[in-house]
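quick one before i forget lol
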Amino acid sequence: MQNTPQIVVAREAGACYGVNRALDLVREAAEGEGGPIHTLGPLIHNPTVVAELESKGVGVVESPEEVSGGTIVLRTHGVPPAEEKSAREAADRVLDATCPFVLRAHKAAERLDAEGYQVIVFGEAGHPEVLGTLGHAREPLVIEDPSQLEGVEVGRKVGVVVQTTQSRARLRELVCALLGRADEVRVIDTICEATSLRQAAAAELAGRADVMVVIGGRNSANTCRLAQICGESCARVHHIEVAGELEASNFEGAETIGVTAGASTPQAQIDEVCERICELSGGELAPEGER
């Protein structure tokens, strides 16, 4: 007879400080008065939360030119300086919801550029956070993978800033690839500590789970990385955005079901998914002290 499945939530999972701060800022603004509110791009990479904000009257625009008056909110991922300037010209009020850790990356890029370093931004080309950071240096280079350095000329002095959701293991690979190609390599580690803690907790849990459920937007870089990390030690990984995506067959034969969530996933979503897993698997949520 099979034991009752245990549903274990990773020690570190879900919405980080920067996301909670941004949500509080926007919800407070939505409850007040003062005209329409728009976020410049999705506030966070969580379609469920973005839809919830829209139901409260918070729309999404892709450029400041779409707005005349009202309030523009700068997304958690940050925006380039030129875009922020346009937002301040177009709106009556601008609320800056940029994550403080992203702002650290902006300031690091500015400092390295001012000190004569060729700035390399290690991150995903085209990601909003990376685009925002690029705007803080004159001729920055984006590197997604160390292998891209082959055939690329780098300066004598190279300064590296990092997308906050990257892993330190991959950063070490980049630094090793740069050594010997530049006279000086300076690295400012702008990886968010919350990201590192979530990755480590997810890896530990995936190593002992039969099934892993990763909750978060499919457009979320940090959630996708969590799913990738879990897949390295667990053969059955399900990356979902909402609880309704899960089916009973996902948990057949599982004794330990692990749950983790990206930094843009509020606790309410995690709770909803855990309830759904309990219903489908017949399992029970492990006490917090046993996680």
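fyi The radius of gyration is 21 Å.
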